Amino acid sequence: MSCMNRYLYDGTADGLLSAIAWIIEEEPDPEQVLLLERKDTLFEEGFFIATDATLAESLFFRLRHHAPDAAHTLYTFMLAEKEGMETSLLHYVALAFTHGDKVKGHLTHPGVRDIVTVSRKAERELHRMKGLLRFEKLQDGAYLAKMEPDHNILHPLAWHFSRRLRAQHWFLYDVRRRTAARWNNGSLRFGTIEQFTTPALSDEEKKVQAMWQTFFKTIAIPDRKNPRLQKSNMPMKYWKYLTEKQGE
């Protein structure tokens, strides 16, 4: 593959999407293009495409209009923060503009298969977290839920609970990425928390947790215990934030 077919971007999400938009516009055959994150090494070859946030946003909205399912797959793929798949994503998006939502049927294409596979994993974790997340009431009356997801699903999860959780004030904290969402009287905001100390629980919350743990142990009939099924529906990596699994 010649140097003319090799492109570099800055490693950001906006940089990736705007590079894809530029390549689709300028290159007659995106299938012959390699897209990589710039590492700033001495002998790095390739043409650097500057980041253009407007171009990135335009690409997503055009794709959503042309192929809504493919745009959703692109969105959930981006949540996965998967490195080294830029060329696959380029090929996927280019094919989506050509074939529309029928692109998901092109699973024999390695780029399409890779993007769809990763996207589905992120989608499954997002769906699972909607049911597994546990909010605890703090002393000041606010609610807090902590999590350590494999994928960066804080934003869609927070928007989900902003429509369904009626509490006036709650926090959602991603322990791994040190990012947080805060809902306060109808306003949702996102930010980074470098040093996090778990606030004190309310007395009411402590009583509820104790009752819930007792209830869970009571209904867990030993003869019907199925650890394999339980781990399939509720993987062990999530247990540390589940009230009913504390002390196991």
Briefly characterize the structure.
The protein is α/β, with parallel strands linked by helices and 248 residues long.
List the helices and strands and how they pair.
Blueprint: E1 6-9, H1 13-26, E2 34-37, E3 47-48, H2 53-66, H3 68-79, H4 86-99, H5 110-132, E4 136-137, E5 143-147, H6 154-164, E6 169-174, E7 179-184, E8 187-192, H7 203-219, H8 227-233
Parallel strand pairs: 1-2, 1-3, 5-6
Antiparallel strand pairs: 4-5, 6-7, 7-8
Helix pairs in contact: 1-2, 1-4, 2-3, 3-5, 4-5
- Approximately what portion of the residues adopt beta-strand conformation? 5-15%
Largest sheet: 5 strands, mixed
Give the number of helices.
8
Rg is 22 Å
Described by the principal axes of the CA atoms, the overall outline is elongated
Unreliable stretches: none
Series of H and E elements:
EHEEHHHHEEHEEEHH
Number of DSSP strands? Answer: 8
Tally of separate domains: 2
Mean pLDDT across the residues is 85
Q: Strand sequence of the main sheet, in spatial order?
A: 4-5-6-7-8
The residue fraction in helices comes out at 40-55%
What separation lies between the terminal Cα atoms?
A: 55 Å
- Alpha-beta content class: alpha/beta
Describe this structure as you would to a colleague.
With 248 residues, the chain is of the alpha/beta class. It has two domains: 3-125, no CATH class; 133-245, no CATH class. Helices cover 45% and strands 14% of the residues. It contains eight helices and eight strands. The chain has helices at residues 13-26, 53-66, 68-79, 86-99, 110-132, 154-164, 203-219, 227-233, and strands at 6-9, 34-37, 47-48, 136-137, 143-147, 169-174, 179-184, 187-192. The strands form two sheets. Strands 4-5-6-7-8 form a five-stranded mixed sheet, covered by helices on one side. The chain has a three-stranded parallel sheet with strand order 2-1-3. α1 crosses α2 (53-66), α1 (13-26) crosses α4 and α2 packs across α3 (68-79). The longest helix is centred in the middle third of the chain and has 23 residues, at 110-132. It is elongated and about 65 Å long. The model has no long low-confidence stretch (mean pLDDT 85).
